[in-house]
Amino acid sequence: MNWPNQQRALITGASSGIGAATALAFAKAGIHVALVSRSQAKLAQVEETIKQTGVETAIYPIDLSQVEQVREQIEAIATEFGPIDILVNNAGMGYTCPLADIPLQDWQHVFNLNVTSAFQCIQAVLPQMRNAGKGTIINVVSIAGHNAFPGWSAYCASKFAMLGMSRALAAEERAHGIRVTAMCPGAVNTPLWDASTVHADFNRDNMLDPKTVANTIVQAVQLPQNAVVEELTLMSNAGVL
């Protein structure tokens, strides 16, 4: 089946949390979705749910931490799945450790996944978007891109970098009709908190739901082409993080 007039989105970190919720929200809005994450099995589960909406979807198991391969892999997806109208850079990892104790390898791994992979995804889709004279890039940052938290130094540094990259990209690409949004949610109840690299004890019941973040992303994407929310901070009214 061919859908020549509908938008096509590529979402990283799409197998769970904000990524999976955004993929489903896009699909319900009639946006076709290419799903990128490491786990083929988890991506397949998300794909099955999305297929019920009737949009086109495809899964691409990629380890985005292998940054030297990312640009070529994303370019290949854009060729196979179709020109990408919307890029959602959502893949990332949490990491807690005092700055004095962080191994260099860990620091570099956090930056590779949280910043450099997004940079490479952006470079992969920009030529297409510039040729089309339009496109939307959503960078899922964090409140940690604005505020520093003890024990989260590597994570905060990566998110400050992500926010700076988003602001610079927005300024550079306006002339090409490309919109850039930095989405900065507070704590969101996702599998990030279950990761072996995160040691934190918060009441997850008070956190944002991934669906809330996803719906906000959809609203930003669906603004008229001549309007953009360049930066948005979304918090739980309980004030968690």
Describe the structure.
The protein is built from six helices and seven strands. Helices cover 42% and strands 16% of the residues. The protein has a seven-stranded parallel sheet with strand order 3-2-1-4-5-6-7, with helices on both faces. Helix 1 packs parallel to helix 2 (40-51) and helix 1 crosses helix 6. The model has no long low-confidence stretch (mean pLDDT 95).
Q: Return the structural class.
A: alpha/beta
Taking Cα atoms only, what radius of gyration do you get, to the nearest Å?
Answer: 17 Å
Percent helix, as a range, is: 40-55%
Global mean pLDDT: 95
Describe the global form: globular
Uncertain regions spanning at least 5 consecutive residues: none
End-to-end C-alpha gap: 45 Å
Query: How can the largest sheet be summarized?
Result: 7 strands, parallel
- As laid out across the biggest beta sheet, the strand order is 3-2-1-4-5-6-7
